[in-house]
Amino acid sequence: MGFSFGFVTFSNEKAMRDAIEGMNNQYLDSRNITINEAQSCGSSGGGNGDLVNNLGTIARVAPRN
Description:
By secondary structure, this protein is an alpha+beta fold. It is 17% helix and 32% strand. The chain has one helix at residues 13-23, and strands at residues 4-9, 27-28, 31-37, 56-61. It is flat and about 30 Å long. The model is unreliable at 45-54 (pLDDT under 50). Residues 5-34 form the RRM domain.
C-alpha cells in the first residue's frame, strides 16, 4: 500500500502552526503521520498557483505494515 495524503485549510496561521506542532510525527490508526506546511506550486505548472496557499497543511500517512 502506498502513502496517503490529505490537505487541510486553516483560517489563520496560529491554528495551522498549532496543528503542525501537535500532530506531526504522531500515530493515527497505528500509522505514523507527517504534517508539513503546503507550498504553492507557482504558475509554471499550468494550473492555478493559488490552489495551495500558505495556510494549508499536508499530512502524509505511512503505509501499513
